[in-house]
Amino acid sequence: MIKGIGASSGVSIGKAFIIKEDKPKVEKRKIENTTLEIDRFKSAIITAEEEIKAIVELTNKTLGEEEAEIFEAHLLILQDPEFLGAVELKINSEGVNAEFALEETINMFVSIFEDMGNEYMIERAADVKDVGGRIMNLLLGVKTIALGDIKEQCIIVKKDLTPSDTAQMNKEKVLGFVTGVGGRTSHSAIMARTLGIPAVVGVGLAIEEIKEGDLLVVHGDKGEVIINPEEEVLVEVKKLQAEILQEKTYLMTLKALETITLDGRKVELSGNIGNPEDAKQVLALGGQGVGLFRTEFLYMDNNSLPTEEQQFKAYKEALENMGGKGVIIRTLDIGGDKKLPYLPLKEELNPFLGYRALRLCLKEKDIFKTQLRALLRASVFGNLKIMFPMVSCVEEIRQVKGVLEEVKKELRKEGLGYKESIEIGIMIEIPSAAMISDLLIKEVDFFSIGTNDLIQYTIAVDRMNEEVSYLYNPLHPAVLRLIKLVIDNAHKAGKWVGMCGEMAGDLKAVPILIGIGLDEFSMNAPSILKAKELIRKVSYEGCKRIAEQVLLMATSEEIEEYLRETREGQI
């Protein structure tokens, strides 16, 4: 057995289909007629563009608009004057062949993006490699294996799968995949989850243990790959597959049912989304609203700041897709590990505590006002709630409300409509905000607790740092006490509280959160039905008793042990 990262859940059994990474060797040649060489390069660009447009069309049909946007970004690379210009300049100035000029340019761009050190830019480097590799193969006349053309069912094994690879996968033939590199947030992993294909990535050099035709079991939840399993293992795996299918079928029967405890306590289950199309999945999986629309993806998927019209269209679409159900749209939250290449920010020693999110928006007022204009204009098309991130004090909320009033005044003057009665809220993700939540709630209509950062800031643990990440624990007593304080203060003021961090979908934490009065849980859409199942099996009174006990405990280990011993029937 080999271990990796579980990138897409489920279990599959199939024969290994190994795709070798035979990178074509590029030689440097002197070119006399650089004009003809540039024409040859441009011809390869035109063909690459035609191929990618075909992939966009296929992806739209099979996976949806969100995944197709990845290849729209690839088309932008093919039109990028900096990228193309760098290749042409090298051909002209150095008199070299197009293949050599292209390879040097790819390496330069990939190096720049990877050196930025954040996940988003590393993904951009992968896009450049993918597009550059396509052009290179066209220049060299190398034919590539199209995963859509695979004739027999198999499990794909490759050092690295590009977005183009996964987009063209035939779901009926590709039962799963294993890669040497990659992580849960890579494009290929996201696409595997969309397709429902089990995947294990990042197995490293262990990928070399797999031979062509080996029978593999890919366990996408555990991040395990079993090579040529014994018969008794296969029997167990097939039994597990049947159980997974049965559970999925059962969970879908809960879709239309209320999210209500055994003794009648109702809570709201919402979904976190990154684009308007995701709203459809939230509804399809029983979500009652959108608890967090991360608008930064509209900015990160662009080569320049999105215009007011682009944003208006996206917000309007999300609101319409939800058919009148609540949609909480968070204003721009960049900085920290999320950077925009077209908005250079000063290097900071501690960017997570620096110039980011609301702090940036209050300084970059033009950017902020453009977004607020788009949000207000879209408000007439649904049930919009606006949320502001990274609030640390009352003064910031008052500044925000001032900017919001400025924008409303501008829209009225221009005769552009918007809803007057829009709820506004803030994320509670900084300990100072939690401590003065009794003061902050007087300024807003609701809170949403962003546990990802609240945990990190409360315990002083960088969750991305492998040396200390073991300390990052949602069940730390300090975190639970802060959450209770926030909920109590909001309820005293007659306001409601949601949670949009990963903790909201953590089934261990759900009974505690119900017990301390959380009103709304917002999570990734695939987690909604499992949470609903749990909530419908417990009582509010039982959850309150659990919360009371947990809040008296001194360590997260004690809390976890207590939760393990407490069965659903006792709650």
| N/C terminus separation | 38 Å
Number of helical elements: 22
CATH class of the largest domain equals Alpha Beta
* Secondary-structure content class: alpha/beta
Number of strands: 16
At CATH level 2, the architecture of the largest domain is Alpha-Beta Barrel
> If strands are numbered along the chain, what order do they take across the biggest sheet?
1-8-7-3-4-5-6-2
Task: Assign the CATH topology of the largest domain.
Answer: TIM Barrel
Radius of gyration: 26 Å
Question: Strand content of the residues, in percent?
Answer: 5-15%
What's the rounded overall pLDDT mean? 88
Roughly how much helix do the residues carry, as a percent range? 40-55%
Low-pLDDT runs of 5+ residues are none
**Gross geometry:** globular
Q: State the major sheet.
A: 8 strands, mixed
Give the domain tally: 3
Q: For the record, what is the CATH homologous superfamily label of the largest domain?
A: Phosphoenolpyruvate-binding domains
